[in-house]
């Protein structure tokens, strides 16, 4: 049901009925027949078009039901990143890592990119047979495939201390500052007058 204004309504009457119809040899189709009477200030085609637009706007809220929200990496190398579920659950095989790096991650139970991004540099380096060279390769692949943004300084993201909690909004601000060529760690604690 579409609500209309009682004072001004150019649509006087609407009837509809559904008929069976045939397309080629198939007879299991339905045809919607609309009868629209207006007062002449608008024509029937415009009235139907506008009512369809209103209905689409009203039902848009339901189009998002059942769609997974992006997972936010809360700590580790990818702290603050909002990844869609499909990217978060991407198997580490898709990173095309060397056999050594891949086997180290797999033996440690890190099977998806999201699980890897939740580990800090220190946690990754404590994995058996996973050294600095493997970490550098992993970080390079994460940057290459767009899971991490390169930082002008150390190539890690975000450029704050690991134990500091960063909200998704904070992570987005850090990323914007890095893209603008600013070092976020230099700006912490400064006011606008100190810039």
Summarize the amount of helix as a percent range: 25-40%
The largest pleated sheet is described as: 2 strands, antiparallel
According to DSSP, the number of beta strands is 4
Q: What spatial form do the alpha-carbon principal axes imply?
A: elongated
Mean pLDDT: 77
Overall SS class: alpha+beta
The CATH architecture of the largest domain can be named as Orthogonal Bundle
Quickly count the domains.
2
Please report the first level of CATH classification, the CATH class of the largest domain: Mainly Alpha
Q: Report Rg.
A: 28 Å
What is the strand arrangement across the widest sheet? 1-2
Poorly predicted runs: 152-164
One letter per element, helices H and strands E, the order comes to EEHEEHHHHHHH
DSSP strand (E) fraction? 15-25%
Full CATH superfamily name of the largest domain: 5' to 3' exonuclease, C-terminal subdomain
Query: How large is the count of helical segments?
Result: 8
How would you classify the quaternary structure? single chain
End-to-end C-alpha gap: 58 Å
Which fold name is given in CATH as the topology of the largest domain? DNA polymerase, domain 1
